[in-house]
Amino acid sequence: MLTDLKVRDREVRAHESAHRAAGGDLVRSGSYDYQQGPDGKRYAIGGDVQIDTTSVPDDPRATADKMAQVIRAALAPAKPSPTDLAVAAQATAERNRAQAEPRTGADAKGDDDRSSASTESGDAATAYRRTADQAAAGSNLNAMA
């Protein structure tokens, strides 16, 4: 049991660290869930990272760029969980919607041929969460309002 807890602790910390590193300035907070081992020490068995997934008001290009960073953060761990993949897919759809909007004003005059638009997002943050009952290394990403 102790060996399993130590392995799990390393996996959880590496997984959540990957989310934090790729999320950069979009990361708002994070925490770990612990289990006490037979040696009396606490071992991480799950964790979460909060990341800002809101669109950038009145700045479609920045929204698309931000969603690209959310995608990188969701897919950063070596073994993204199904929920990690779902968050990446949601951010991809939002980024694609932003890029599909017609360019106007300063965007139309830019030298970058990408276009993007602000999208509606009710989620202030997305939590990267890995629970104790998951067998494989990975995180669950739960949208938080």
Strand-pairing-aware structural class: alpha+beta
**How would a textbook summarize the main sheet?**
4 strands, antiparallel
Helix content: 40-55%
Please give the domain count.
1
Question: Helix segment count?
Answer: 4
**pLDDT < 50 runs, ≥5 residues:** 111-145
- Report the count of strand segments: 4
The SSE order reads HEEHHHEE
End-to-end gap: 37 Å
What is the alpha-carbon Rg in Å? 18 Å
Form type? elongated
**Proportion of β residues?**
15-25%
Report mean pLDDT, rounded to a whole number.
77
Give a summary of the structure in a few sentences.
The chain has 145 residues and is of the alpha+beta class. It has helices at 2-23, 60-75, 82-100, 105-109, and strands at residues 27-36, 42-51, 125-130, 140-144. It has one domain (2-144).
